[in-house]
């Protein structure tokens, strides 16, 4: 069995807003096996970025981790003193924030920015750092001659490659990439994802890929964690979750996105409505107000994250009926009725 690198257990993250608080992540549990790409997927606002940032403990000033464990290599980093956590960042866990433009400083050359990580954090000397910069650029397919360029001199796709090089600088075990291909055209998306996959398997690292786009997960991930309104809806091997989803939200997401591989994917059916306001989440299953299959229990009782199969978890009161619901979910009318 594959060894687990990261194990998130019942993670809770809240934002303080005025006198109240928003439970943006409300009991998330999932695993990241060594040497795998795990897609963290869900609509905007469902808590993906909050989870990703909590894993590096670079969270907003008004955010706090209010519960749970983040076991990285067996150590609970949710409880680690900031000094030790800081030593772990870049070296063990690297984070690529949502826009590569944000992660790169426009006023410095990319070599300067790579050097900041390599020399300041990695302790490399000038010569070693230069050699590593060249190696990193080669790894991400950019000529070393462009190391002295500024971020604006690169195209969007190339900036994303630079951000990947930066993340890989100190040989981390885990790279967390937040929406790494959003805003790029489909051809460039594929190139970046292919490269991420090649580097992941060459270096044997693990990657958490945060995305709202389930076709990105289908294209490149080994496993999928589907989030909805701060909770895990479904998690497991990519094929099991996307080919035979057990949660109606995953069934709906699958209908709502085109296929990145370019195959004919038929009619796209959006999930009507929007995720709930997390300041006032509905009782019971948070997806119930939009779910075409919701029954009374769904509106009153929160479903537990149970087993759909030994390695496949799902949080749905009707998970036992998944095969039947999948057939109904494949029909566009199912998603137009009831909501
Ligand atoms: N600094 C903040 N203060 C208050 N609420 C916040 C803050 N940051 C995020 N939130 C709220 O937390 C919830 C989760 O947001 P988060 O950004 O993690 O979701 P997401 O799935 O990553 O969405 P997106 O892809 O749009 O970033 C949302 O309801 C959002 O409004």
Automatic annotation (TrEMBL):
- Pfam hit, one: oligo_HPY
Q: Which UniProt keywords apply?
A: ATP-binding, Cell membrane, Membrane, Nucleotide-binding, Transport
Q: Could you state a single Gene Ontology molecular function term?
A: ATP binding
Stored SUPFAM superfamilies: P-loop containing nucleoside triphosphate hydrolases (SSF52540)
Q: Per UniProt, what is the membrane topology? A: Peripheral membrane protein
Q: Which residue intervals define the domain ABC transporter in the entry?
A: 8-254
Q: Which InterPro entries match?
A: AAA+_ATPase, ABC_Ni/Peptide_Import, ABC_transporter-like_ATP-bd, ABC_transporter-like_CS, Oligopep_ABC_C, P-loop_NTPase
Asked whether the keyword Nucleus is assigned, the reply is no
Q: Where in the cell is it found?
A: Cell inner membrane
Task: Please give the family membership noted in the entry.
Answer: Belongs to the ABC transporter superfamily.
The UniProt entry, under PANTHER family, shows:
DIPEPTIDE TRANSPORT ATP-BINDING PROTEIN DPPD (PTHR43297:SF2), OLIGOPEPTIDE TRANSPORT ATP-BINDING PROTEIN APPD (PTHR43297)
What is the recorded name of this protein?
ABC transporter ATP-binding protein
